User: Fold this.
Amino acid sequence: MPKKDLISVGNLSPQEVEEIFLLTDKLKADAADFKSALAGKTLALIFQKPSNRTRVSFDVGMYQLGGNSVYLSPGEINLGVRESISDAAKTLSRYVDGIVLRTFEHKNVLELAKYAEVPVINGLSDFSHPCQALADIYTIREKLGALKGKTLAYVGDGNNVCNSLLYACARVSLNMNTATPKGYEPDGAVFESARATAFGCGAKLQLTHSPQEAVAGVDVIYTDVWASMGQEKEAAKREKAFKDFQVNAKLLKLAKKGALIMHCLPAHRGKEITEDVIDGKNSVVFDQAENRLHVQKAVLIKLLGNRNGR
Ligand code: CP
Assistant:
C-alpha cells in the first residue's frame, strides 16, 4: 500500500475528514485504549520556524500513543542547505516512521513527501496548515454539533490558515464567509476548488471585503495575525491595511448571540483581536489549542499505525 501523507486538507475527502473526527472522538473518550497504538514508532519533527502548539502537541501526542519523537531545529538539519531535501528525506526514512515539517515554502513539503518513504505531515507552510484547520473544525463540531447550515466568518488575512479552513469547511458542509482587505484574499485556486466541493456538499463559500457583511448572523468568528512568521518586515504596511478588520465587541454584536470566537494562536491582543473578545465567554481558543493534540493523534494513528516498520 502506498504511504499516505497529510500535506493539505484539499487532499482529503469529506469521508476521510469524518473518519479522523470519529477516531478523535474515541481518543478523547478513552485515551488509555490507545496508549500502545504507536509503540516502537518514531516521528521526526523538522521545524524551520518557531512553534509552541504544533511542536508540543506532536511531541506529547507520540508519547501518549506509546511512541517517541525527535526534534530537529533549523540549525540541525538545515534542510536544502546542509544537504538536499531529497537526501534528508531518504536518510530520515531509514530511521523514523513519519516526518512533520514546519517550513516557509510549501514546495519544501511537497519535495520532502516526494522523496520520503514514510508519511509526511505538513506542520505549517506558507500555503496551508492542515492540522490547525482539522482541529478547528473538530472544535466547532464539539461545540455546535451538526455543522450543515451553520456559518463561520473568517476575518483577516487570506493566509495559509484561511486556505486550509476553506478546504475544511467545504468538506464538512460548513458555510464560510471570508472578509479580507483588497489584495489579501485567499489563494484563488484554493477558493475555486473549495467552492466546488462545498457546492457538492450543500455549503456556500463567500468572499467579501466587509467584515460587517461577513459576520452578520454567523455562528463562529475566526481570525489570525495580520503578519505571519516571515512577514515581519511588512508589519507596518499590514497594520494599516487591516485596521478595519479587528475582531472586537462591536463586530461581535453583529454575529449570532453566543457565536464562538476562534483564533489559531499565537494572538496579538489589541491588533487582530481585542483582549475582551479573546478572553470573553464565547472564546474557544484554548479548546482549539487542546484539540490540536487529539486530532493529530488520530492523524498519526491513521498514517503511521498500519505501516510495518521500515
Ligand atoms: N497555531 C499554531 O500552529 O501554533 P504554533 O505556531 O505555536 O505551533
Notes: The mean pLDDT is 96. The radius of gyration is 19 Å.
